[in-house]
Design goal:
Layout lengths: L2 E6 L2 E2 L2 E2 L1 H17 E10 L3 H9 L4 E6 L8 H13 L5 E5 L2 H14 L2 E6 L1 E5 L2 E8 L4 E6 L6 E5 L16 E4 L30 E5 L9 H11 L2 E4 L1 H5 L20 E5 L5 H7 L4 E5 L13 E3 L3 H16 L2
Parallel strand pairs: 1-4, 1-6, 4-5, 5-12, 6-11, 7-11, 13-14, 13-15, 15-16, 16-17
Antiparallel strand pairs: 2-3, 8-9, 9-10
Helix pairs in contact: 3-4, 5-8
Length: about 325
């Protein structure tokens, strides 16, 4: 099965999302077996530095489109441009991170081009001359193996923090191919009016440590000790859907099937029972600690360590000890 591999390098404000380099690492595992070239795709405005990084990460060619209309991600111009680029290519594999943008773009572009799609994959390999993708199914209770039939393009999105990014090699060289935007600003139906950023917070999807609160924290004020421990550990603040639905904490902190899917090194769940929807978003954490007065909640079946006690007693004590040991 000859074919090239393309990796969309997701970026914002001239900085590539780490998930793009993870997708590049996944691409390198199959590119040589497919027999084609390893290519990167970068859309935006002033993305020359990212193009060079893509070459250093393993790309033989980098397709860049620099235009003010592409400065901020919008699915319509990005998907149309991606589809236009692929029109001239033989059946290929297109990889990208399973971020919010990556999941949307891959689905939209696959529909435009009549391509196959395997979203949110955790493994990618060759079995003989056949490309195989592996993805969780049924809220993570089963693993689905996807084999691609036919001769069209194949879109695959890679779950964050599964593949270890390769080291950059500054001595590598490659070709940078410039392509023009295909949609004028006036023809793009969505507009970016403003962008709000949360300063001083740790991204849930990038965090190696997450401390989450659930219904057991009792209210908005109950997140104070949860946040204090997250800050002491240098981690991110998470929450269950129940806490978000109750209005105690913004949706941006939600972990679970309808929130963020995370794979941190350490996940501390405080006052969270462990509904299947929440487990779908965090049960692949390397170490899970459950703190709950009720030792019979489902989360304890998945936790590596548990504290059956009052979180309002334990969290401040743990935070104080962490600060003492880390000299904070």
């Amino acid at each position: 099965m000859a074919g090239s591999v393309f990796v969309w390098i997701e970026q914002e404000d001239g900085r590539a999302d780490a998930i793009a380099w993870q997708a590049m690492a996944a691409a390198k595992t199959v590119a040589s077996d497919l027999g084609g070239t390893l290519n990167a795709i970068v859309f935006g405005d002033r993305v020359g530095d990212i193009a060079q990084q893509a070459i250093e990460a393993g790309a033989d060619r980098v397709y860049t489109a620099e235009d003010p209309s592409l400065d901020r991600y919008r699915v319509e111009p990005y998907a149309k441009l991606l589809g236009h680029l692929l029109e001239k290519e033989p059946p290929s594999v297109i990889l990208m991170g399973a971020s919010t943008a990556g999941l949307e773009l891959s689905a939209y572009a696959a529909a435009l081009t009549g391509a196959a799609l395997a979203p949110d994959c955790t493994d990618l390999r060759m079995e003989g001359d056949q490309l195989v993708a592996v993805r969780p199914a049924l809220v993570g209770n089963l693993v689905s193996t996807v084999r691609f039939n036919g001769t069209g393009h194949r879109f695959i999105t890679i779950r964050r923090n599964i593949f270890q990014p390769v080291d950059l090699n500054e001595s590598r060289t490659g070709a940078v191919i410039e392509v023009p935007a295909v949609m004028a600003e006036a023809d793009i139906p969505t507009k970016v009016e403003s962008v709000e950023t949360a300063d001083g917070t740790v991204s849930l999807t990038e965090a190696s440590i997450i401390v989450s609160g659930g219904r057991g924290v009792g209210g908005p004020e109950g997140f104070h000790p949860v946040r204090e421990l997250a800050d002491a550990l240098g981690g991110a603040l998470g929450a269950s859907r129940a806490a978000v639905d109750a209005g105690w904490i913004p949706y941006a902190h939600q972990v679970g099937q309808t929130g963020k899917t995370v794979q941190p090194d350490l996940y501390i769940a405080c006052g969270i029972s462990g509904a299947i929807q929440h487990l779908a978003g965090m049960k692949n954490a390397r170490v899970i600690v459950a703190i709950n007065k009720d030792a019979d909640v489902p989360l304890y079946k998945y936790a590596h360590y548990g504290i059956a006690g009052d979180l309002f007693s334990y969290l401040p004590a743990i935070a104080e000890e962490v600060k003492k040991r880390l000299g904070r």
